[in-house]
Write the structure tokens for this entry.
Amino acid sequence: MASKPQRILILDGHPDGGGRRFVHALAEAYAQGAREAGHEVRTLSVGQLDIPLLRKGEDFQAGTPSREVQRWQEALGWAGHLVVLYPLWLGDMPAALKAFFEQVLRPGFAFAAGGGKRLPKKLLKGRSARVIVTMGMPALFYRWYYRAHSLKNLERNILAFAGFGPIRSTVIGAVDGKAATRKAWLDKVRRLGRRAA
Ligand SMILES: Cc1cc2nc3c(=O)[nH]c(=O)nc-3n(C[C@H](O)[C@H](O)[C@H](O)COP(=O)(O)O)c2cc1C
């Protein structure tokens, strides 16, 4: 069934700006499927962005984000559906992608202090998300042995905290394996793009 046209932001979280990376191919497959189905797509590729490291809590709380960071915030605000893709590095998202979130998801944009004992207000409500993570180990091992802890952190502590929901995930394990398996994943992700799911 065709889904309503959506505004989709694809955040390709691979730190390698060039090169033939599977994560780039997955991001492209999602974009292709989505465009074919009439969705509007924008892409931000972490590997091509100059992302400064956030070094002080004061900057996070009260600093003025650079023009470039504001541009990324604008892209996030524009989207109704966010797709985040990254390779698992040392059990977590690569540092460059974490640096992106630390710059972009600031108070006043992603959430607002609740005051007193109240919980912070989520400012990015009404947006869904899909996280696609690739890794060397088998996906089941990551989900069952490691309890997908870093993925849950991204879903709950970062995205849901800012108001995203529902958030779905795709874990692609044993990624350095057969070409036929990679092709099957690219087809599957292209189908997700068509449904903006
Ligand atoms: C620095 C680094 C750390 C990695 N850490 C892990 C890890 O903790 N667990 C794992 O299963 N795979 C790990 N891998 C394998 C990558 O997740 C895998 O090669 C990647 O998802 C392939 O995607 P790409 O072709 O787009 O780079 C690591 C790879 C690199 C380069």
About this structure: The chain has a mean pLDDT of 95.
